[in-house]
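Try it yourself: sequence plus nicotinamide-adenine-dinucleotide, in.
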Amino acid sequence: MSAQLEYTPLPQISEIHDRLRATYTSGVTRPLAYRRRQLLQLARLLQENAVAFENAELEDLGKPRQEVALVELGGTISSALRAAENLEEWMKPEKPTVEEWRNSWDTTIYKVPKGVALIISPWNYPVILSFNPLVGAIAAGCPVVLKPSESTPAISGLITSLVPKYLDPDGYAVVNGAVKETTALLDLRWDHIFFTGGTKIGKIVAAAAAKYVTPLTLELGGKSPVIVDTACDIQLAAKRVLYGKAQNSGQLCVSPDYILVPKAIVKEFNEAVKKTYEEFWPKTPFHPEAQWGKIVNPLHYSRVMTLIGRTKGEIIAGGEVDGVRRIATTVVANVQQADALMEEENFGPVLPILEVEDVDEAISIVASRPTPLVIYAFTDSEETKQKIVEKTNSGCICLNDTISQLGVHEIPFGGHGDSGYGAYHGKATFDIFTHRRGFINVPKEIEPYVAFRYPPYTEEGYKK
Ligand code: NAD
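Structure, out:
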């Protein structure tokens, strides 16, 4: 039986908001020592309850323990620890180089918290997508209301019970609920909103943020393509794409959504996919060793099954179901651009392969579609790499692998165009919740040099 999530009563939502606002005004969340302690506590929360999180993810998403430990827990713990370690440096005021005559102005950029933040997270990676933004907000000195997804009740329930035990309850609170509760949250004034989810709901959040001119980070989705060049290791490409697609059964914002393969190598590529498939999952697909996650709920399950049912392509691997919302990674060849699988983000274990004339056609197809979160490409050619960089748009580009960009803390992670705006990971997450406050102190001694600016305006003053 699935867990029941208790929704936060509506009147409590504004009380929580007021409590956090008072905490922010008191200044308690600002000192380095406070922020660092909360970050270390967040790491402890995950370390000490790792098994409980694994169990909850198994219950809600059927996610393999290894994936939970590696991505959800390991990824978040290392973010929190890295932030705690680097925070003092990040917080330091900057002294920009100024024009020489202003050297005495004490020109400074202070890093101040934006204020009280709202984080709304999705269900697919419910720990890291809730806590990674939280790491940045804590580091920046912002109190936070976290609204996890109602679609993962066991995990959201666990987060709700643990946050007040580990973090300062006056600084960080969890609000649970669906549309009604989230709408009540969005009716309030926030100093930053961080939203991760689909584009449709992202637009609702953006409209609500606009009401108060609240700065917003929108981490959205989209169809992230894979371009396969003739100049590449085809077997390795097949292996790395299939690995990326299988993560969380394709319920990943940067999941490879469709593959574009030049006709000269499409046959060889399809064979390579089939061979890899047999190597990855040699037994029946639902043998326990297969360890595929579940589709989150019946609604999404029937959405994915309908897509598979509507495709005019040919299933060359997978396609089996187990009756408890598991679908084997399903590779579909000979897919046309007008196919059902090309309409919207598949967000499930379906991987269409489209044949194209050459890599140039692949690039122009990608460039003509809404801007994705990431473009994957497999190529050994410097020329192809340059064409992709110059002729397409995306949040990021990952060459010769899938998913690996998520682990590189030094590059920003975020969308562009239709896939959202604002980017985070590493120090960029701290920057999102930080206001860079300019400061100058103009010395009295410069008065003779600025006398010309005062009225009454004269011809002589103007000429100076
Ligand atoms: P979603 O947009 O349905 O829900 C996200 C959050 O919005 C949830 O907390 C939900 O309660 C809330 N919400 C739902 N309806 C709302 C409404 N009417 N008003 C206000 N809030 C509302 O997304 P999802 O189904 O949870 O996640 C899947 C989507 O998220 C996919 O499109 C995926 O690509 C995207 N995603 C993006 C990233 C990223 O980092 N860019 C990461 C994960 C998922």
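One thing you can check immediately is this: The first helix runs from residue 10 to 26.
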